[in-house]
Amino acid sequence: QEKETKKEQSEEALPMVPSRKGSSPNASGIKGDKTKQNDPDSPNEKEVEAEFLRLSLGFKCDLFTLDKRVKLEERSRNLAEEALKKEITDALKLLEALVPLCEEDNQAQEIIKKLQKSLQFLGQYAVRVASKAEMLGAINQESRVSKAVEVMIQHVENLKRMYTKEHAELEELKQVLLQNERSFSSLGDQDESTNKKLPNSLNFK
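== Lymphoid-restricted membrane protein ==
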């Protein structure tokens, strides 16, 4: 009779032990979080990821042709500057050729001198315009790159947030598994001690 009573007590204690499949509240909470995690990402995160992939592919493609494009643009710029200088030089030579023909015309002489000064200023301004245009192009490129970097930073922040969430869920699941393992271990020790006491009770009878 004492044996049957102890057996009933051990059977009554079994439902109180959380199962390994997650019958405890913590386990069910993790399962719910996993369901949320498996849901599709929000449109904003999807757009950021798609833009990140597009920019990454663009940077990789541009990297292969960067040196060639730099050399090509430098060559085009040098050719344009040389052509402009040649045109200004030719114009100055034509004005110098007109000077002997207009020796007696003071008004024409004044006009020729003004044209010569204007052409000289034009050459100087052309150099300044080229420098400013190059600076403007660099600033525009910096603006485009800054927007691309902003997208990349946002993508990295999304990845960090996802990692933190998954890490917290794994830690919570680890704690639940440890609690279940301790519960089963204590239950096993209790059953073992009960089995050891049974022969003594039988001998007593």
